[in-house]
Amino acid sequence: MTYHYDLVRYPTSDTIKIVTHLLERITKTNDKLQCNTLRHTSSPYTCFYARSIPSIDIQSYLARILKYCPCANECFLSLLVYLDRMSRNSTELRIDSYNIHRLIITGIMVASKFFSDMYYTNARYAKVGGLPVTELNALELQFLKLNNFELNVQIEELQQYGNRLLMHWIRETNCTKKTADDSYYPKTLDQPIISYPTGHRSNHSFTTNSQSISLAKIRSCSSNLFIHSADKSVTEKLESITNC
Asked: What pTM was estimated for this model as a whole?
């Protein structure tokens, strides 16, 4: 049995939950496997590492971004696509608690600019993400380079990521109770299958009739435009929220 993720109707707040579930599993696994010295070596990903683990958890961070820089489901799913592409382009990507926040804010900002007709400034995203705007600018350029400046994601690919992410969420949480709106989960017979291995640097992938997409590699990775706002909640002191 497979499930259909509705890109348009599925609540973005719920998308954040299932994306969080996957990213938390990745970071927790890699925190145990990751050697501390890797964070200090010279690599294309060094700029994404924080000096210490931010105090804000992944779900709260994603919810904060959604609240102050609203974007659609496509942006959050595209974040996973971009991370997957980066992991395929370089074996040095290891997503852990030290770099996940910078990867998230940069990836969502880039995706929002690409998919949205109206988007926020880098300065806005920097305030929301708890980073200096100059640093976020540098992270954006590096993120684009690591994706070979290829940001386009076909709707079919987004749908496949959404379907498999939803399946993974339901299986992992042993969700047996139907949601209030069953239309979010219509049964289908022709959706591709993908597994999320727990091993380190697994090369498992799933295939469709036309291509093979290695979203599972994300799991195995031992791995902005709004002018100045008067909203105090946006300009609040971010030091008390995250220490990037």
From this structure: 0.70
